[in-house]
From TrEMBL:
Pfam families: DAGAT. It is a multi-pass membrane protein. Its EC number is 2.3.1.-. This is Acyltransferase. It catalyses: a 1-acylglycerol + an acyl-CoA = a 1,3-diacylglycerol + CoA; a 3-acyl-sn-glycerol + an acyl-CoA = a 1,3-diacyl-sn-glycerol + CoA; a 1-acylglycerol + an acyl-CoA = a 1,2-diacylglycerol + CoA; a 2-acylglycerol + an acyl-CoA = a 1,2-diacyl-sn-glycerol + CoA. One of its GO terms (biological process) is diacylglycerol biosynthetic process. The chain crosses the membrane at residues 21-41. It comes from Lepidothrix coronata. One of its GO terms (cellular component) is endoplasmic reticulum membrane. Keywords: Acyltransferase, Endoplasmic reticulum, Glycerol metabolism, Glycoprotein, Lipid biosynthesis, Lipid metabolism, Membrane, Transferase, Transmembrane, Transmembrane helix. CDD domains: LPLAT_MGAT-like. Belongs to the diacylglycerol acyltransferase family. GO terms for molecular function: 2-acylglycerol O-acyltransferase activity; diacylglycerol O-acyltransferase activity. It is found in: Endoplasmic reticulum membrane.
Amino acid sequence: MKVEFAPINIPLKRRIQTVAVLQWIFSFLLLGQFCCGFFVILILGNFWFLAVLYLLWLYLDWETPCAGGRRSQWVRSWTVWKYFREYFPIHLIKTSDLNPNHNYLLGFHPHGVLVAGAFGNFCTGMVSASKESVSYVLNNEGGGHASIIVIGGAEESLNAHPGSLTLNILKRKGFIKMALKHGAHLVPVFSFGENELFKQVANPKGSWLRNIQEKMQKIMGFALPLFHARGVFQYSFGLIPYRQPIHTVVGSPIPVKRNLNPTTEEIDELHALYLQKLRQLFEEHKRNYGIPEHKSLIFE
């Protein structure tokens, strides 16, 4: 395989952008394992008392991620996120104003491999995606709160091939029920370019690789797409995403009346309306971002 190295005279700004994305990749894929390993070192070394203090803090702090987390404007305003956004670059396109007197539940599509668009636009202050956490965010009577959920979840990441428009959404109705219970207006969001950031080893449904990935997902709770892209100093292989523009288009809100005990029929009706609005959003904007006219979303 011929290796294409990056030119030496690349501007410093682009180098910093690459470093910003590199730290994001490390945080996404390895930070949890790194922290666990560091914890084991503390226990086995002479600093076991620090590990005990951490376990005590973890016990006392267990519910915080489901109760709004610890929003830090300092972290949210880090310059590293600016360089992260500019690497691709990431753009946010608003098609309608959101009334601050309401709460909103935004459905983000597609998942992609590592949901770069969702992170860059919304998640530099993320909290747990559990039902308790979403309820906490949407349970504000005064309005002005929004929860953004990547609807397709880990399962959809296995479909994240360049050019793919397949969304895992037909059986995902929990977010619809959540919106009804809290009276949160639903907002479809489609991120054009999300699936173009990485290449993935071919894994069509029914293949041995896909079967193994799906079984491991059920066991571990998260998917393991075998993806690759470019490196830090060369463009031929690695885990750094390609510099492909991401345009995240936020649709118009779907009004939702509060219903503490929605029936199956009411959930299905709102779900069908959401799918209709999501498809409409995609069709209205696809030609602006290089999607051929004959290509449409596939719902599974």
